[in-house]
Task: inverse folding
């Protein structure tokens, strides 16, 4: 079924009786050419591009729970490409360009809203760092505008410019950044992949890998054994647990990241705002709620819930940059499991086991990377060659001295 304004109008006039299920509920086949472990944004995007761009016909996505139950439905919806290093910036710029055409590409309203993202500057060294980042963005074709205090006041007059500890001196503005409805991204990719013959199998947990003589020939699941020529894992915060079943130990730690949303308010924020002197970021949803988050909880966990110290820290950051947020009532909160790599950058690579591939280590960057991650992973699976924008995302980069240390904090994922 193709969606259109005319279709919505006709269904509204006829009692909405003509809508069909968005995707099928097939039983798993005995074998596939490619099995994707993980039905989140990256897994579904990979399946979609494998079928659409690379012509792969026998593809399955295996999801332990239901589509949208993981991090794809547990994030703060922000998209951007304001990175610095050459290993990251071109990749995230590719992703942002793909976001801009996504709804037309898979014929689904993902509510892409490019209202811009503003990173606040509070001191001179920070301004120097953001000038450098902005120049790096320009080199990859991204947009970046350095604003002074006057420019910030015109855009966001409600900010606390006279804060004694964190006065606002300017900001780095990326007009093409913004937000996207996270659930709709999962549904759109699932629908598009299913339309092209991909089997999306929910409630199918992978419990082991069939590996013989260094070759992966399939997976064991809660719904039986399934053979495959290639197995592609992308399970975000569960990466270490799943890959341990293949005997692999990853340079990844899993931590929970909390997010929050307030009651619905009239439009107040022009776009996404981030606090430069602490870890706090906020945007406003189409329903009017302020969606915000901050640091990960400072311990390793696989639980999709957080604790009060981080709640307090995030709220303190919000009060420091925009005191008016203290008048809003918190409606709900949730947590997603972050797969924190040792340099804050991801992996899209083959493993040392033939036929087994890995995508993970996204830290805070997973949602915004969804289109490019899916495309580059599909490129790797179909051609056995890394995409030109993802050549640095190797699993062996720490052994070879090619870390992509975007934030200069080394092997301390808790600081990213």
Result:
């Amino acid at each position: 079924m193709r969606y259109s304004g005319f279709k919505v109008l006709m269904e509204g006039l006829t009692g909405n009786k003509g809508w069909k299920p968005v995707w099928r509920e097939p039983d798993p086949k005995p074998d596939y050419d490619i099995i994707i472990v993980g039905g989140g944004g990256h897994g579904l995007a990979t399946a979609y591009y494998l079928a659409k761009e690379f012509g792969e016909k026998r593809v399955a996505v295996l999801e332990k729970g239901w589509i949208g139950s993981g991090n794809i439905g547990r994030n703060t919806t922000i998209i951007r490409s304001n990175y610095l290093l050459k290993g990251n910036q071109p990749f995230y710029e590719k992703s942002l360009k793909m976001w801009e055409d996504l709804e037309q590409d898979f014929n689904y309203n993902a509510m892409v809203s490019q209202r811009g993202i503003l990173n606040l500057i509070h001191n001179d060294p920070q301004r120097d760092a953001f000038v450098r980042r902005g120049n790096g963005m320009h080199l990859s074709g991204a947009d970046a505008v350095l604003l002074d205090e006057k420019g910030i006041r015109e855009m966001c007059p409600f900010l606390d410019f006279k804060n004694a500890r964190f006065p606002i001196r300017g900001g780095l503005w990326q007009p093409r950044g913004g937000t996207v409805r996270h659930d709709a991204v999962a549904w759109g990719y699932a629908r598009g992949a299913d339309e092209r013959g991909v089997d999306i199998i929910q409630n199918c947990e992978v419990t082991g890998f069939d590996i013989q003589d260094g070759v992966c020939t399939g997976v064991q699941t809660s719904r039986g054994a399934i053979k495959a020529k290639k197995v592609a894992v992308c399970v975000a915060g569960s990466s270490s647990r799943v890959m341990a079943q293949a005997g692999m130990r990853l340079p990844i730690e899993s931590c929970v990241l909390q997010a929050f949303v307030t009651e619905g308010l009239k439009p107040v924020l022009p776009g996404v705002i981030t606090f430069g002197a602490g870890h706090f970021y906020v945007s406003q949803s189409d329903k009017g709620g302020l969606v915000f988050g901050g640091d990960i909880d400072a311990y390793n966990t696989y639980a999709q819930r957080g604790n009060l110290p981080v709640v307090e820290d995030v709220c303190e950051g919000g009060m420091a940059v925009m005191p008016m947020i203290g008048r809003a009532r918190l409606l709900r909160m949730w947590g997603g499991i972050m797969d924190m790599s040792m340099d804050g950058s991801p992996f899209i690579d083959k493993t040392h086991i033939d036929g087994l591939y890995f995508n993970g280590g996204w830290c805070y960057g997973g949602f915004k990377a969804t289109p490019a991650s899916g495309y580059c992973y599909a490129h790797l699976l179909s051609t056995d060659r890394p995409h030109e924008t993802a050549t640095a995302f190797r699993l062996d980069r720490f052994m070879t001295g090619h870390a992509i240390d975007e934030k200069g904090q080394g092997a301390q994922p808790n600081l990213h």
